[in-house]
Fold these 2 entries.
Entry 1:
Amino acid sequence: MSTADGRNIPVILHSISNEHKIPEEMYMIPSTWKRFQLSQLINNLLENVSAVPFDFFIGEDSAGGKLTSVLSNHSNGEETLHLSYVPSILPPKHLSTYEHDDWVSSVSINRTAHNEHKFLTTSYDGVASVWNSRSEKTVELLGHVGPVLAGEWVGNAVVTGGRDCTVRMWDIDAGKPSQTLQCTAHAAPVSALAVAPPLLPSEPHTLLSSDWDGLVCLWDTRTPSAHEVDADPEEPVKKRRKSKPAAVEAVRKAPIHRLRGHTGAVNGVSFAKEDQTRAYSAGADHTLRLWDVGVGLESDSRVAASALRCVDSLNLHGVAVSGHVDRSVCVWDTRSSSTSNVAQKLWGHGSVVESVASHPHSPHHLASAALDGNVKLWDVRSPKQALFTVVRNPANGKTEKQNKILGVDWDGGLLASGGEDCAMQLHEARA
Amino acid sequence: MAISKKRSRDSTKGGNAVAQEFDNKLDINGAEELSDGDNDHLSSDDEEPAEFPEINPDSDEDAGDSDDDANSDNDSIHSSDSDTSLASFSSVPSTSSNVSDFIEKASKKPDETDYYSQPPKQKLGFEATARTVRSDATGEDKTVYRNIEPGYDSDSDTEEQQNAIGDVPAEWYEDMPHIGYDINGKKILKPATKDELERFLEHTEGDADTVPSKNMQQDMKLTPDELRLIRRLEKGQVPDDAFDPYPDQVEFFTGKGKEMVTPISGAPEPKRRFLPSKWEHEKIMKIARAIRAGRIVPNKPKAPPKPTFYAIWSNTDEHTPHVMDAPAPQEPPPKTIESFNPPPEYLFNEQERKEWEETDEQDRKIKFMPQKYSNLRLVPAYANLLKERFDRCLDLYLAPRVRRTKLNIDPESLVPKLPSPRELKPFPIYNAISYTHNARVRSISVDPTGIWLASAADDGYVRVWELSVGRCAYSWNIGEGEPVHSVEWCPDKEVSLLVATSEKQVTVLSPLPILTTGLSKASAQQADFAFANPQAGATKTADIRYARPNESQRENGLLVKIEVPGTPKQVVWHRKGDYFATVAGDAGSKSVLIHQLSKHQSQAPFKRSKGSVQKVQFHPTRPQFFLVTQRYVKLYDLVQQTLLKTFLPGLRWLSSIDVHPSGDNLIVGSYDRKVCWFDIDLGDKPYKTIRYHNRAVRAVKYHPSLPLFASSSDDGSVQVFHGRVFDDLATNALIVPLKVLKCHTLANGLGVLDLHWHPTQPFLFSAGADGLVNLYSH
């Protein structure tokens, strides 16, 4: 392997995305070039005013740090090298901190509001809050008895689930936030929620909720005219100390389907991105189960090496990603038929992976958060190492040890994470 | 067996002509050997060298007279007897005047001429024994035959054999005056033993034709026939001299005038008789081809044999040593001091020389005096050479050498084959979550659903944690500053109750506000049941009192307070979740109490103190109860109220116990750093003693569903083991050390105080004196 200085290699550069396209011609580049020089070359060709850094791939694999070795090891110097490039993801940048009174259990970014960012956070003090991008709390939702464990956006409305075993839907557009629905099918604390947008704007959203008892319930957000479930006579009225805004009693709703199958707690649910009738659930019984939501039946079950803590679906057909107790992030290819087929395992976290959020558009990128206080951004094409590790500043005067992250969300441009430090932190992470 | 000469004993075969013949011949050779004692009445006939086979009529007359008394009816019998005698005589060689001739004949192969050419003279002689006498009774003449003694070939044993003791050891009669009994039961006296001189003389005189008879304890003379038999056997001949191995061929079909004229078969001669053999041809051709190819060289001169000799000057000893060969140890090589020209510092000065000379030869450190010569030529002969060699030989001879067989065993092979921990996954490997207390955590417990973790600390608080995220969900201040010693969740999944023990108090708790509605209601009802039905708990012990906390306390989950004597340090639940036992080491006879929650009833099962009780444990499947004293583990039957078994761990101070969920094994930890595994059915000694901790072992725990167990110690470490119990009773439990988890710091010399496993997942919890509870995940 002679590192021939001054040797030139014929290279053809393709752009993966439609922007940053350059004419497909062969360039002779020195074998000593690195990513920076290649990026410079493309920027010069595009006549960009501000330089955009690029990442280069050989075929589908990320060449990453190995680009140098690929170039220098390109032995004969005659074979043309095909390189693809994408604008590289910039290191996440801390934007702001949203302080809470108690641990933040989950965060969610409203993806439908185009011009204004809205964030929903749920907290262990029983409050779900909606924030705007200026770190201002716009709405405070009081109603849950005990901690709120999960929250999701339903269009411009909000749904939350708490340890009081209820799933509540809130209307926040009106001047005064009000609870519109209450789903009381669960007999155990609600651990996770998932929302699928309707195919037609006139139809209601569908909603999945899971609890610690292994039950997954399917709902829609249509408000029934009357109570579908009788009120629990034992419900102590006294406990509703904080539920003053919900003066009008919300309509109690029954689920469309009760999906039973898990033998332990269900820690996460997610709709498949490409198909609203399919859903994944992550169980503490080491299984990832696939559900046919339309008929309410389990369609498949995959066994993992350890208990699953969370699940999300990648923007790639049939591919799910899950966080595990054994510190790994697993990428599942559910299209193939074998029972346990982890397509990839992403190792790098130092503790239980508590939450994963996939990129809304990219089929390769995801963010994961673990109890060791790290949020990592991954490209599933380069599984050996995370793209970035987001450094969170200790907030609220918490020590470095008290930094468990319980929830993360990523809308492709903003990365929100919240946890033990009683704060949601916002980072810019564009991909 | 050297038998030189042989004489028949007259007493045996009186009328035997052969015997007589022998006697006659021998008498010619050495008549002086004969002594009177050796002959009986018939040998008197031999005094005359009469011509055989003439019978002395005088001697026969007595016999004839004696026969006269016999019945004349016997005559025919006599005659028939004589016929048989004749038949036997016919095979005996005839007499010969020449002794040497006879010996020659006797030693030769019996020739048929000896038999068949022999005229039957005996018959004549026998016929001569008959004579005619006048009968006294009838007055008529009658023929009287000679009285025939039973023949030589008849059953001589009955006659001769006297001693009838059978085949028993002769030593039995050694001290007796007799050697046995005859057929009539009379004692046979011991014959006079010959003294050594007699024996010697007998031997030198050559009268050695005797064999010792064990039965009669005297030397028996061999008869000529026996002697002959022996001689024939010596020569390898057929013992029976009547057998003719070489009879003449009797020609039936061949010979003059017996030729066959017509062939047996009329078939023509086959063709193959006239053709050369194909197979022989093949064989010959094979050899011929080999000769042509040069593989066989005919008439090849043989190589001269290699001379074999022993290379006497060769250095290498070609002889392989004997298996038991123990070579002499080598002498150390000579040192500088032994040189003929040593450096001057090795030479003795005056004082050393004097010292050397004065010390005894045995005690000298150096056996010689170093001396300096300017060149080798001047060195005199070594005076002590012989003595030194002799001493060396003496050393080698007198000092026994031991053969030490080297064990060529690979030490790796002695290590038991254990599966690799890699194959035994999952087991806890890293500290995933820490739950932070502010004070020393004494006890932890995980609820049966695996959602909550309870911990009891020295600051008096009992905390309930949401174990998956490590958030403190609820807490009580039970001890109010005093330590809470133990906490344990009720194993019943229908309720969510836990029991905590502090000084003089046992508290039943339930984290009601964080539970779901149904669960909190069931838990409160379960604890309240006995308050609602007070008649159920009829028997109240004086110093045990069930108290109902006030309403605000009850709303916070403080359900029942039980005042007990002493400070309970441990609480364990029965598997059904109604009974729980507490141990207070300082409460004397009431150190062990079993409480029933549904009836609010407490009892002390042991009337007398069983020594200082350390821990107790309910059997997971049977109504049995383990009691850990300082040194022993005792197993009691709760129904029969009897002691079933006492286990002897052989440790000085036990600290903890846990019973395998299958109920057949238990582990015991001790303050002397060891962990013992017992198989309950296997006896009272531990199956395995594990000593991996550096300090006192504080807690041991089995996983409720997976084949794992762990031990924690004051050295701050938690050790995880794989402990698989097989259904097959013949297979012993498999114990594999898996992982050492060191995540606690020592505080006041205390390390990890308690352990607990998650009910379903391979999660391990450890409570440390540093105020941390750690969750270890796989």
Entry 2:
Amino acid sequence: MAELAERQPGQGYTPIDEAKRQRLLELVRGRAMARPTDLAEDEVMVWPSLVVVEAVSAVVFLLGLIVLSVLVNAPLTAHANPNQTPNPSKAPWYFLNLQELLLHMNAGLAGVIIPTIALVGIAAIPYIDRSPLGVGILGTSAKGRKIIAFTTVYTIIVQTVMVVLDEASDRQQFGLGAVLKDAGMPEIVYGQMLPSLIILGAIGVLMAMVQGIFRPTRREMIIALFTGFVVTYVMLTIFGTSFRGEGQELTMPWNLPLEHH
Amino acid sequence: MRREQTLADRITGSAVWRSVVRHGYPDTQRNQALIIASNVFLHIHPVKIKRYATKVTYTFCLGGLSFFMFLVLVMTGVLLMFYYVPSTDLAYQSMQDIEASVTFGQLMRNMHRWSAQGMVIAVFLHMGRVFYTGSYKPPREFNWVIGVLLLVTTFLLSFTGYLLPWDQLSFWAVTVGTAIGGAAPLLGQYVNFLLVGDYQIGQNTLVRWYTLHVIFLPLIAAFLMAVHFWRIRKDGGISGPL
């Protein structure tokens, strides 16, 4: 190019220097200078990019559901009989966590107050944790994911110990309830206040440990609390479905009556 | 040279076709936009979307699957309603008829049952996904609250359906469940009467739960879902890394 620019007008044609001669080697497909689309760099068209994902997952799921439904029949036991109580009588599995809770404390506390507080607490999460940090990242951060793992292990151990210990003391709040009962305290003390304190204590210990070990942000502390809730829900459901036999005694899953398998 | 018209060209070029379908074959961006915008079912979506929002390992399709299971439940539920009689004398018999005599009856019942259980699991997992990705944060706070209400509605839908077979399993599960509700402080006996409609579980309970199950709660769920899906778009689509 410089050669051409330096060429004076009127000068004749200069033969091309063979050593500098350019050859066409290849055509490379590149992005056009003017984009013929109004899609931003990180955007895709919903048709087809999203619609295909939805359609495929719907078809795969539906096929799985049909296969399951062909292979496994929904249960239909004997005609309802109000005079014949099955032992054990169990709520649907997703309420068995409440039924498990019910064994250990006052029915109103276990069946109504605690689930209500849990649901209101969950609904309130976005009004407590308002920082936009960590949106779109599973577990917020490496620390967040460690907190999830820590809380899961903590909750599994604490739940198992509490259920087994309480069972060993005839569901008298580790025997403390029996002591208070014998001391002539009213039901509200040993059936409601004592279990509430035990639950708050278990949550408090979790929060103190997470605080001490991880120095969490508010978001990360809420991750610990939410994980504690989810693991508790799952653990109590497992206890209720698989480890409660006749008279709601703790049993191994293979000793359960057949319809509860 | 003019291309010869194929049968497909004649159909898609006809006045009837073009009165129904307002877009051409979706191989251009214009038609891909029109197919979303001109279809009442697809227009729940925007025309274009962030690339990360199509990643399956971010959402695991859990919200979509919950909705899909709801649709399966509506379809199979309507078919079951043709045969099911909500009477304490006839309910159990109609269940046996559905299983033994109705064409595909057992399959419909199984699909209804397993979807109902699956929907409870999917909604719960969806809540977990939304929580662990921090997707409830502003501006999505209110949609999270709607989601919690949808979780409760899903539980209630599943639980009201549990009584309908009128077998021992359903009768005693509901006995336990309503006893839990009846343990509510102060309001216990009123809650219990509201749920049972009598002093013991019987015909009144069955009609109550049937009505809640087949019309009242599905309407509530549909209403909440409409708000839920609309809010996703108004709050800027599904969440993603900032």
